[in-house]
Amino acid sequence: MRQLPKIVPVESDEDVHRVARLVAEAWCRFDQAAWLVPNRLQRRMILGEVARIHIEHATFYGTVNILADGTAATVWFDRHRPMPPPLDYWSRLADVAGGNVSRFMLLDKLLDGNRPGDGHEELAFVAVASGCRGAGRGRWLVRHHLAKLDNAGITTYAGAATGAAREFYRTLGYRPVHAVPMPDGNRICLMRRTPHTADGTEAARDRAPGRNGLA
What we know:
Blueprint: E1 7-9, H1 13-27, H2 31-36, H3 40-61, E2 62-67, E3 72-78, H4 89-97, H5 101-113, E4 121-128, H6 137-152, E5 156-160, H7 163-171, E6 175-181, E7 187-193
Parallel strand pairs: 4-5
Antiparallel strand pairs: 1-2, 2-3, 3-4, 5-7, 6-7
Helix pairs in contact: 1-3, 3-4
């Protein structure tokens, strides 16, 4: 198997911008994207700007990793403690989303209302550049962080917007919890993954973590 690029943490504004571009490209493939931003010409730009707000936030309240060649990235949030919204979130969201802001606000409300109350890490985004899909880059990034979470005994959740995403998460040990109905008639499947032991089986129970579960 060809060696994949090195995984590096996202720290600079330039790296945040690179991840936002990847997320916007991936987001555009989902049916929900057309509901969020009906204007096809504006869709990718607006999705990228909205994603950037959340990615910046994750650099303070989670983990953002990218491959060194910029072809794939993952965005995680640490939800073991109450997390404040991004700084000036509503005004920033209105600025970048424009007339689409009410749909983004509704999406936030739906996801927040269905988010588990137990401490966990949330895999918010997995994004791979269009010309590099199918080569294991996204899986490599997710497994890299899951290994740390397994060692710390941390449960994770992810939201799957497509059947392909559900299958991807299933192969990584995630199991469906429930489906969140969306206004466009589609559903986002909330999936849960309990910590796994070194032999790949699910641990008997979660351990109480510290900050990021790694302290």
